[in-house]
Amino acid sequence: IFGSKKTYAHRYIYPGIAGMILFILFPLAYTIGLAFTNYSAKNQLSFDRAQNVLLDRTYQSGDSYPFTLYKTEQGHQLVVEKDGELLASP
């Protein structure tokens, strides 16, 4: 293309054709291909089923212990009662 005088005009035509393919034909072909792609929601859960799945999630609750918080000279001390035994923080 660049060495021959006969093909002098082609050095301007080929980049134009490449740009047309890149910016017009490729997006057009991609859009047509996308139009025939099945993006239905058949593979997803229904609203009621998804709601049931989310509402059925549970957690294991731990035991609850009564506690007392005391103010000391060093800060605060936490005292927890467990099975009749008092457990204190340092």
Offer a quick outline of the entry.
This protein is an alpha+beta fold. It has helices at 10-35, 47-55, and strands at residues 67-72, 75-82, 85-88. The radius of gyration is 37 Å and the shape is elongated.
Give a structural overview:
With 90 residues, the chain is of the alpha+beta class. The chain contains two helices and three strands, in the order ααβββ. It has a three-stranded antiparallel β-sheet with strand order 1-2-3, with no helix packed on it. Strand 1 and strand 2 form a beta hairpin. The longest helix has 26 residues, at 10-35. The chain starts with 9 loop residues before the first helix and ends with a strand.
Key phrases:
three-stranded antiparallel β-sheet, transport, ABC-type maltose transporter activity, 90 residues, Maltose/maltodextrin transport system permease protein, transmembrane helix, 20% strand, alpha+beta
Distance between the termini: 87 Å
Shape: elongated
Helical amount? 25-40%
Structural class based on helices, strands and sheet pairing: alpha+beta
Mean pLDDT: 87
Note poorly predicted spans.
none
Oligomer: single chain
Radius of gyration: 37 Å
With strands numbered from the N-terminus, the spatial order across the biggest sheet is 1-2-3
Instruction: Supply the number of helical segments.
Output: 2
Give the SSE order as H and E letters.
HHEEE
Strand content: 15-25%
- The beta-strand count equals 3
Largest sheet: 3 strands, antiparallel
Organism: Vibrio parahaemolyticus
Function: Part of the ABC transporter complex MalEFGK involved in maltose/maltodextrin import. Probably responsible for the translocation of the substrate across the membrane.
GO molecular function, one term: ABC-type maltose transporter activity
GO biological process, one term: maltodextrin transmembrane transport
